[in-house]
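Exercise: predict the structure of this protein bound to S-adenosylmethionine.
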Amino acid sequence: MSTKNPRRAAFDILLRIEKERSFADILIDHELSKELIKGADRGLLTELVYGVLRRQATLDHIVGQFSKQRPEKLELYVRLLLRLGIYQAFFLDRVPVSAAVNETVNLAKELAPRAAGFINAVLRSADRGRDGIRYPDPAEQPAQYLAARYSHPQWLTAQWLEQLGLEDAEALATAMAEPPPFTIRANTLRIGRDQLMERLGRDGISCTPTAWSPDGIRLNHSGAVTRLAAFGEGLFTVQDESSQLAPLFLTPGKGDQVLDACAAPGGKTTQIAQLMANEGDIYACDVNQRKLRLIRETCDRLGIRIVRTFTMDASSPSNAIREVKFDRILVDAPCSGLGVIRRNPEGKWWKQPSDLEQLSVTQFAILENLAEYLKVGGTLLYATCSTSVIENEAVVDRFLVRHPEFEAEDLRPLFPQFAPLCTERGYFRSWPHRDGMDGFFAARLRKVE
Ligand SMILES: C[S@@+](CC[C@H](N)C(=O)[O-])C[C@H]1O[C@@H](n2cnc3c(N)ncnc32)[C@H](O)[C@@H]1O
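Solution:
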């Protein structure tokens, strides 16, 4: 049976991401499903694609030191081949440098024959000169330094510096360039966390309990967990620890009427159902009708019966919820995803600072629209997986000014166990480098009159 070179497959995927803005996970899954890449090469393909996307700016910076032409002026094929070669030679212990260079040059002979000599020369001189690579001076040009050294857009490193200062921003930049942890949540409607860990252990999966989430389990590998029998039996779902904390701050109770306004694919919807012991009503809505199927599938798998799904634009009035006053509303808002860029590294290169302002307009419109659907005394939780103040505190502040019937509740006295994860203003904000989970924000707003 024929096989495919994983480096060639990685090149093809990176090319499509550059040209079409396709998502890496979908392209990798598609390639692997063809079963033309075997054994350890399957892991190598994933590592090459994600590694190059995560380290792209650093790889270009290194190329720039050994090429007369600036990396952004190079032909796309040549730039991608050099990124692949430098990534293997500098960041992959499992590939000897000689193999990294030779394999890349062989690929170049096939894909960009006229540039094969140039690629060979750059890779070999980069290897010889690896100890002399220079980066911008962190004291003089901290944003440029973090951007080149840890491979992030410079406007983003500038934002981190403003929020955290150099030392902390450097720790964040380091964490954001690493692969993320792989975390699941036990479906406590069917099994306790300890029991599930025992079961996973018997299946040969090594794991540890999460530090903060009571139902979270961190797996020490990210293999195909959805193929495990325990997944099919609905004993767990995949969800980052930060995302597992948001529903806890909402405190939904048995028998409540709950609106999950931006619900797909349903990670938090199903956790809310768990917290309600599968009793009450959850209206799970999303503007994207196709994604509602994912919520229903997960509910079926986890044995959740109290969720009804609707297509709804949460930023404008809807007939679907016209008659209802809710005890709890979750707004897990559409956002930039700046807190999860290590999971979707391709996305960080597509975002612009102006996106944050635009998103904040939608986020505010969703809050404004949903305010009236909450009962007096009820709680609305506003959450994002963004680290940006523009999408978080600024949206909440603006909402509170316009809606004096709401007040922000300080999470620290209500949840003393999570106080170390809260900001000075009593909002939840997690950071990958400090807390070992994704970057996340949540504000608990109570309707007082
Ligand atoms: C952060 S994701 C939600 C994740 C989900 N809560 C979970 O835990 O699995 C944001 C969702 O908001 C949806 N969305 C975007 N704009 C919306 C709008 N105007 N009204 C309702 N949903 C919207 C997107 O389709 C996306 O599924």
